[in-house]
Amino acid sequence: MSNITIRPYSEGDLNSIVSLWEICELSRPWNDPIKDIERKLTVQRELFLILEKNGEILGSVMGGYDGHRGSVNYLGIHPDHKNEGLGKLLMNRIEEELIKMGCPKINLMVRNSNLDVHEFYRVIGYEEQEVVVFGKRLIPDE
User: DSSP of 80-92, one letter per residue?
Assistant: First the structure.
């Protein structure tokens, strides 16, 4: 795993990250990725991590901690670099950062239809939980 860097997001990453999320099919019409990035930069920006290999952005993850549980969003690895262990590297790093903050557990959401990602999380030690996720949009991303 040489020439790999994991670092915090910087403002010059915006276009590359939005493009990565589109390629990884992480974006949805009701979520404006630029607004999501702007919002994240106001809260625990140090938990918005970028993975580069040879200077090229290949991955991202957005973490958070509310004092009770950690969360992970926008974990994405460029499809041309799947199965190289990069997703595991990013998750290990976000877990380390959350542990430093005293976070006892991570919760994350994966779409029901995204079976490959279900398997990824199982392989790295995550278990499906007996919960139903509810959501309510408070601010539309029109």
Answer: GGTTSSHHHHHHH
CA distance 100 to 103: 7
The residues facing 31 across adjacent strands are 28
Predicted confidence band of residue 12 (pLDDT cuts 50, 70, 90): very high
Which pLDDT value is given to residue 16? 97
Phi and psi of 105, rounded to 5°?
A: -160, 150
Alpha carbon distance 105, 69 (integer Å): 5
Q: Where are the beta strands (DSSP E) in the chain?
A: 4-8, 48-53, 56-65, 70-77, 106-108
Asked if 88 and 106 touch (Cβ cutoff 8 Å), the reply is: no
C-alpha–C-alpha distance, residues 27 and 74, integer Å? 9
Supply the pTM of this predicted model. Answer: 0.92
